[in-house]
Automatic annotation (TrEMBL):
This is L-xylulose reductase. It comes from Papilio machaon (Old World swallowtail butterfly). PANTHER family: D-ERYTHRULOSE REDUCTASE, D-ERYTHRULOSE REDUCTASE-RELATED. Pfam families: adh_short_C2. Homotetramer. The lineage of its organism: Eukaryota, Metazoa, Ecdysozoa, Arthropoda, Hexapoda. The keyword Oxidoreductase applies. Keywords: NADP, Oxidoreductase. One of its GO terms (molecular function) is L-xylulose reductase (NADPH) activity. InterPro entries: L-xylulose/Carbonyl_redctase, NAD(P)-bd_dom_sf, Sc_DH/Rdtase_CS, SDR_fam. Belongs to the short-chain dehydrogenases/reductases (SDR) family. GO terms for biological process: glucose metabolic process; xylulose metabolic process.
Length: 244
């Protein structure tokens, strides 16, 4: 099955590293005109050094007004990947209002903000576009020290369903992916402790963590015309974790 985004403009947030970078790179390989957003300039510069035709935008999506202004200025997009996110892990009894507010600002408010701007332009241009929100298995299952993060991702799943309902009549599809632990550069470091890793691996029937490419492939499929009847789905990419 060949997927092409030739002639399509796609916005990817959180594109400086990890899953977001992998998505931006693969979209470029399949012909898309990619606009990559990250708050870290150095990550964007290394991305553009490898892929000079990818447009880069340094932006902290946690700033509502600035984000709205910048995304408005970027013009019309055919597709959007909301990948920007933050994970502040605290035990339930030690959760702070600061961690809650910071997490919800990035993981929920920024996605509403960016998606509103992009979707309005899709509607104005009568574009039957696609949006994918990067959620987490933490939205579906309790994970130690993940109270606030899990709540934010459960909220993102709810936002995904609401967007699918309200944007569907305009031909705009909205879906989410819900990965398990993914072996990004940070993931390999964060899960290097065998005791920590084995506790999670024991709950995954396939017996391993995911690779970035496995999330990327699912996201590109959901963005593509091959998924033209898929709308409002939360797709686990977890090796069966949620089946146990």
């Amino acid at each position: 099955m060949e997927i092409s985004f030739r002639g399509k403009r796609v916005l990817v947030t959180g594109a400086g590293q990890g899953i977001g970078r992998g998505i931006a790179e693969q979209l470029w390989r399949t012909g898309a005109k990619v606009v990559a957003v990250s708050r870290t300039r150095s990550h964007l510069e290394t991305l553009q050094n490898e892929y000079p035709s990818i447009d880069i935008v340094e932006l902290d999506v946690g700033d509502w007004d600035k984000t709205r202004e910048v995304i408005e200025s970027l013009g019309h997009f055919d597709a959007l990947v909301n990948n920007a996110g933050i994970g502040l892990c605290q035990p339930f009894l030690e959760c702070t209002p600061e961690a809650f507010d910071t997490t919800m600002n990035i993981n929920l408010k920024s996605i509403i903000n960016v998606s509103q701007v992009v979707a309005k332009k899709m509607i104005e241009n009568k574009t039957q576009g696609a949006i994918v929100n990067v959620s987490s298995q933490a939205s579906k299952a309790a994970l130690k020290d993940h109270t606030i993060y899990s709540a934010s991702k459960a909220g993102l799943d709810a936002i995904t369903r609401a967007m699918a309902l309200e944007l569907g009549p305009y031909g705009i599809r909205v879906n989410a992916v819900n990965p398990t632990v993914i072996m990004t550069a940070m993931g390999r470091i964060g899960w290097a402790d065998p005791d920590k890793a084995n506790t999670m691996l024991s709950k995954i029937p396939l017996g391993r963590f995911g690779e970035v490419s496995e999330v990327v492939d699912a996201v590109l499929y959901l963005l593509s015309d091959k998924a033209s009847m898929i709308n409002g789905v939360e797709l686990p990419i977890d090796g069966g974790f949620l089946a146990t």
